[in-house]
Design brief:
With about 240 residues, the protein is mainly alpha-helical. The protein folds into 2 domains: about 5-100; about 100-225, no CATH class. Helix content is about 65%, strand content about 5%. Strands 1-2 form a two-stranded antiparallel sheet. The longest helix has about 35 residues, at about 65-100.
Length: about 240
Amino acid sequence: MREKSQEQLDLQACHRVRSRLVSRRTATINQIRAFLIEQGIAVRAGVAALRNSLFDILKNREDEISPRMSELIVGLYEDWLWLDERIETITKEIEEISQREGNCLRLMSVPGVGPLISTAVVAAIGTGEAFDRGRDFGAWLGLVPRQYSTGGRSILGSISKRGSRYLRTLFIQAAKVLLMRPQNWPKFSFGPWLANAAPRMHRNKLAAALANKLARIAWSVLSTGKAFDTHKLEIEAV
């Protein structure tokens, strides 16, 4: 892959910092939950549930939670708020870049691709000239299934999970969002494929397959310099 420009390096650094901050926030939230569980207090799943009930729990269960433990949990909550602010700031910066960069704007014409994915792709591969075809990009992301041959026939296994874990995760998240809205599938040129595949594939496999298709479309948009037309662009055959 060719040497990255300074703009790509800056954008990639933004994504790396954001990813680290998100990981720290997740760890902080998990630690708050762990401390509460050690006190015999379980909070229902979901970030909002914990945020909304935390101070009520500390107030109503102060006979069970020591002042020191309560102080530690409040400190972790303050860390959580600070991380929220840092993540929001850097996310806004990434979104602003996506609105100024032509390749990002074209990538955001792809269903499910927003500022985060578009800027992450541009930061990673520029205009995609390092890859000869979309399948090569999908393989680099680790989204191409492993193949096994037996008895003269090929069997597709799970995805390889090689390459960029961060980008692969973003594309799979985008695919899962699209799968949640089947009413929108007819709008996409790959809608018939998706409708046919949905009944016969496990949801996780379908999400991986769709993520691979989105990645290949993204490469095509970068390599041609043309926005994605959901009804006119012919997708490279799987």
